[in-house]
Specification:
The chain has 184 residues and is of the alpha+beta class. It is built from three helices and eleven strands. It has a four-stranded antiparallel sheet with strand order 2-3-4-9, with no helix packed on it. The protein has a four-stranded antiparallel sheet with strand order 5-6-7-8.
């Protein structure tokens, strides 16, 4: 007969089991707390920089270019005009704000379209049809700049997968010459 059933002193085995369980709970809750703090206070994850997309003559009018930023953001870049300035291009998130489906550029309709629920956005990313229009949800816009015939995009530089690595990028497109960008 065990003394722990009768309310007597606790044996060593019961003490070790209870200690292991308490230690496991403390470690689990501690890990959860650390992850929550890192998620809520991401630190300098707001670092942004300019990256080269392509040469301006490589993207024809009505054409589009898919791009994935270092932080995992999906972007579609479309050309609307014939000039070689940033005003002739637009870079928008290719993720529908309604349910996260992929949005693509339809040059024949001059719009961005989400096939999941027939969501449509005009050439500037403003909602025109479907659930995004009903909710007033726009596509996120990314700044573009043209320098020496190269199209640059300003994007977040922190990777979602590796928070300790920051992607190298130019402070501004004007800081590089065309030969600098092509060598990299």
């Amino acid at each position: 007969m065990s003394t722990e059933q009768s309310g007597g002193p606790v044996n060593r085995r019961h003490f070790m089991e209870s200690s292991a369980m308490a230690g496991g709970l403390a470690a689990g809750y501690g890990t959860l707390g650390v992850m929550a703090i890192r998620f809520l206070h991401a630190g300098d994850g707001d670092a942004v920089g300019w990256q080269v997309l392509c040469r301006t003559d490589e993207l024809s009018r009505g054409g589009s270019l898919p791009y994935t930023a270092p932080n995992g953001s999906k972007v579609v870049v479309a050309r609307h005009g014939d000039g070689d300035t940033a005003d002739n291009f637009i870079a928008l998130s290719s993720v529908c704000p309604h349910l996260g489906c992929a949005v693509h550029w339809e040059s024949q309709n001059d719009r961005f379209f989400c096939p999941c629920h027939n969501g449509a956005f005009d050439a500037q990313g403003n909602p025109t049809a479907g659930p995004p229009a009903a909710a007033g949800q726009q596509l996120t816009r990314f700044p573009l700049q043209v320098e020496d015939g190269l199209l640059f995009i300003e994007v977040p530089l922190r990777s979602v997968l590796d928070t300790s690595t920051q992607v190298a990028a130019a402070a501004t497109p004007a800081a590089h010459t065309r030969s600098d960008c092509l060598e990299a």
